[in-house]
Amino acid sequence: MLCALLLAGCKGGEGEAQAKPGEESKGPDAVPVEVVKAALRPIAASYTGTAALEPRGESQVVAKTSGVAQSVMVEEGQSVRAGQPLVRLDSDRSRLAVAQAQAQMQKLENNYRRAQQLVSQQMISANDVDQIKFDLENARAQHRMALLENSYTTVIAPISGVIASRSIKTGNFVQINTPIFRIVDDSRMEVTLDVPEREISTLKAGQPVSLTVDALPGQTFTGTVDRIAPVVDSGSGTFRVVSAFEGGGLLQPGMFGRIKIDYDQRADALVIPRIALLDDEGDPAVFVVRDGKAARVPVKLGYMDGEWVEIREGLKLGEGVVTAGKIALRDSTPVEVIGQNAPKVAAKKVEAKAAGSKQ
């Protein structure tokens, strides 16, 4: 019985030994990844920043004399032109001052004419004539001053623009030098950026600028770099760059905008998505799919434009870089491409299996 059991064990062992060579050794599971091919496309080198829109000009309108507002002729949001009347104040007192100054001036003019006749007859001294002439000039100055004070009873717009705020109503008593209107020139909007000094050689007046604002999603406005400060602030290490945009439409003062200044263009740059770059510290690198495995490839970067980054060295046109699933990858990790490139990869696998079965 013992011999029979030993013989049966030997036969079973031979059967297992014969089954093992037919079995394929199972390797590590392939990591599913998404791949995008390096391609040629235009790319721009740009500087971006955020700032609030400011009007080209702004003025606080003040009353140059005191009085009761008899008529307020404009409302908030109304467009006005320079020199347009805004408010008329009570002018009774100022008109009386003008009449009084004019009467005094006419009296002295008559006295001066008579004195000139008398001095030729030697009936009045030259000193008396000079005094009358001095009094006449003083009266003329007072008359001009009275006319000026009377003109202040009509408050006019100092600049063209839009009434942004109004703090007066008909019947209010207005104190001298009190702000009563705020006018903004909305014909042109400006955005001021404080740019690091390392960019001073790349930004120039006249360069194109694009603007997007939070209040108007999906819309992009174009402008130009209007002027650049010639000095760098020693405290912050920045210089001021002012960009100008056409106003009078959707853009309004105070809107918060995102600015992009393009200072160089490349028509056929080799680019990949920025998300393909590895987050490792040190030199930039990407994972490239080669022969069904991930290969870590260092790259030299060029310009970055939105979601794209230019590759100056390390990749060739058409090479696929991993954009999703790269966290689980190491160099030589088996991968399975999913997404747009998956059918091609699956076809290659079927062909490989068919070739193996023929052998």
What do you see in this structure?
The chain has 359 residues and is α+β, with helices and mostly antiparallel strands. Among the domains are: 31-43 and 268-348, conserved putative lor/sdh protein from methanococcus maripaludis s2 fold, CATH 2.40.420.20; 47-56 and 186-266, Elongation Factor Tu (Ef-tu), domain 3 (Beta Barrel), CATH 2.40.30; 91-152, Helix Hairpins, CATH 1.10.287. Helices cover 25% and strands 41% of the residues. The protein contains 4 helices and 20 strands. It has helices spanning 2-19, 92-120, 126-151, 342-358; strands at residues 31-37, 39-52, 54-62, 67-72, 79-80, 85-89, 154-156, 161-166, 173-174, 179-196, 208-213, 221-228, 238-246, 256-273, 285-290, 293-298, 300-305, 308-313, 320-324, 335-338. Strands 2, 3, 5, 8, 10, 11, 12, 13, 14, 17 and 18 form an 11-stranded antiparallel β-sheet that branches. A 4-stranded antiparallel β-sheet has the order 7-6-4-9, with no helix packed on it. A 3-stranded mixed β-sheet has the order 19-1-20. A hairpin with a 2-residue loop joins strand 15 and strand 16. Helix 2 packs antiparallel against helix 3 (126-151). It is elongated and about 130 Å long. Mean pLDDT is 82; it is low at 1-24 and 341-359.
